């Protein structure tokens, strides 16, 4: 690998780290320490392999030493693949307090709608700590719980979490609100989602993304476009996700001109470079329009 230059590429290096960590951790670290500017992917690979091997206590120390190197790096920051392994390592003494501190880092470095693996690792961690159903959950815990309900289509459990928020006078802030909007939308309860959206005292881009996306995936393109316009009137700046869900809504109801205008505005108005998802929406939009005209 050294003589052929494969050690300059992330993927073969990641495979080498995985294999070497099963043989000798010191050897894996020796390889890692000779990598110039390792990517977050390589950090995550070694952290994960440390947690899945034996000698739990020592390896957890090493995993957190790698995590500290990420935090002190000039350009790197943890992502959604960094945290699940670390939460798994924190499920027993003396690492429980580290897990609670790590939860604050999830909120700092990830968007509130972080993925299923992070949500599941959070729930597993608090379950191991004996905190589920024993102590009173706060807004942060509820965001993770509601997000899991949304992804699994568990409407009754998500609605229970909503009722819990109201009964216990917890803050229905934009993070909890966005999670509930996303949950109701994914479960097909658009009227409840929009009622909640309309009642939120503060709405940011993420709130709008959840509601616009809810309208779009259920074929209510006109409502999605109207909400997109309302968002801009309120002075909020759309991001990449906003533009994808808005174009998706246009595609489903044949709003070709509006969808093309949104696509054109990406570079011209918002300075956002279109990605594969945006081009995919544009192709779908034009394809549906062509089919309609042909019919």
TrEMBL record:
| Gene3D superfamilies for the chain | Tetratricopeptide repeat domain
Reply yes or no: does the keyword Electron transport apply: no
User: Where exactly are the transmembrane stretches of this chain?
Assistant: 12-32
A Pfam short name: PPR
Spell out the InterPro entries in the cross-references: PPR_At4g14850-like_plant, PPR_rpt, TPR-like_helical_dom_sf
PANTHER family assigned: DYW DOMAIN-CONTAINING PROTEIN, PENTATRICOPEPTIDE REPEAT-CONTAINING PROTEIN
Q: What is this protein called?
A: Pentatricopeptide repeat-containing protein
């Amino acid at each position: 690998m050294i003589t052929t230059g494969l050690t300059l590429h992330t993927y073969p290096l990641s495979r080498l780290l995985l294999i070497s960590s099963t043989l000798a951790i010191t050897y894996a670290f020796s390889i890692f320490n000779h990598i110039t500017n390792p990517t977050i992917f390589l950090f995550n690979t070694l952290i994960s392999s440390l947690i899945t091997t034996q000698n739990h206590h020592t390896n957890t120390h090493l995993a957190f030493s790698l995590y500290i190197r990420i935090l002190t790096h000039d350009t790197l920051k943890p992502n959604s693949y960094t945290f699940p392994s670390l939460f798994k390592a924190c499920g027993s003494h003396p690492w429980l307090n580290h897990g609670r501190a790590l939860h604050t880092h999830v909120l700092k470095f990830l968007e509130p709608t972080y993925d299923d693996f992070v949500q599941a690792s959070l729930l597993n961690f608090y379950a191991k700590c004996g905190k589920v159903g024993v102590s009173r959950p706060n807004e942060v815990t509820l965001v993770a719980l509601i997000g899991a309900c949304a992804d699994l289509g568990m409407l009754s459990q998500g609605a229970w979490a909503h009722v819990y928020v109201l009964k216990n006078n917890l803050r229905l802030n934009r993070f909890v609100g966005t999670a509930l909007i996303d949950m109701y939308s994914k479960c097909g309860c658009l009227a409840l989602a929009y009622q909640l959206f309309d009642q939120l005292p503060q709405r940011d881009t993420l709130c709008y993304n959840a509601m616009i996306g809810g309208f779009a995936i259920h074929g209510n393109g006109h409502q999605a476009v109207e909400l997109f316009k309302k968002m801009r009137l309120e002075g909020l700046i759309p991001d990449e996700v906003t533009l994808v869900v808005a174009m998706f809504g246009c595609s489903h109801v044949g709003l070709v001109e509006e969808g093309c205008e949104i696509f054109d505005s990406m570079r011209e108005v918002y300075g956002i470079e279109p990605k594969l998802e945006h081009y995919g929406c544009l192709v779908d939009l034009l394809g549906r329009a062509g089919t309609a005209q042909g019919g």
